[in-house]
Write a structure and sequence with these properties.
It is found in: Membrane. Its main location: membrane. This protein is mainly alpha-helical and about 170 residues long. Helix content is about 55%, strand content about 0%. The protein is built from 6 helices and no strands.
């Protein structure tokens, strides 16, 4: 999504302030937090006992990690769902004609009687938007709909795998 937003809002010009903030802000702070944490053998919250004024930096780092983990775990849940669906004899996102496909689905075969292909969508895009996310059933951003039990199981599986790999600590995951 980031490259698309850069292209939509001005192209590569955005990369100049992004690169400057990355080089002069984000990387030094990340390096400093890693060095302080390793030297003191403390986590991101308790490492700031050396300067209590900056204790909020540790809480902020933990909260950002928490929010980002929810976002990425949902994407990994989608991946698990795609892997599960790919074990079928024919991949469901290869052709049109499924119950979730619309009349605009176009699998790319040559059809000389239909020359208007500008409003067509691919079967893969319709699989993701109409079967996985069910966007066509929503009226807007305020209408999220009910959770899909298939995706809920995939996300719970992802969180279970993460918990099992991290519950004894970072040392055991290696």
């Amino acid at each position: 999504r980031f490259p698309y937003l850069c292209y939509k809002n001005g192209g590569g010009v955005f990369l100049i302030p992004y690169s400057l903030m990355l080089v002069f802000g984000a990387l030094p702070l990340l390096y400093m937090e890693l060095v302080l944490g390793q030297y003191n053998r403390l986590g991101p919250i308790s490492v700031w006992k050396i300067c209590p004024l900056f204790k909020g930096v540790g809480y902020c780092a933990v909260m950002i990690s928490w929010y980002v983990s929810f976002y990425y775990n949902v994407i990994i849940g989608w991946t698990v769902y795609f892997i599960y669906k790919s074990f079928s004899s024919e991949l469901p996102w290869m052709q049109c004609g499924n119950e979730w496909n619309s009349e605009l689905c176009w699998s790319g075969s040559l059809n000389f009687s239909d020359t208007n292909t500008t409003n067509r969508t691919s079967p893969a895009q319709e699989f993701f938007e109409r079967e996985v996310l069910e966007i066509h059933l929503s009226t807007g951003i305020d209408d999220l709909g009910a959770p899909r039990w298939q995706l809920l199981i995939c996300v719970v599986l992802v969180f279970t795998i993460l918990y099992l790999s991290l519950f004894k600590g970072v040392k055991s995951s290696g």
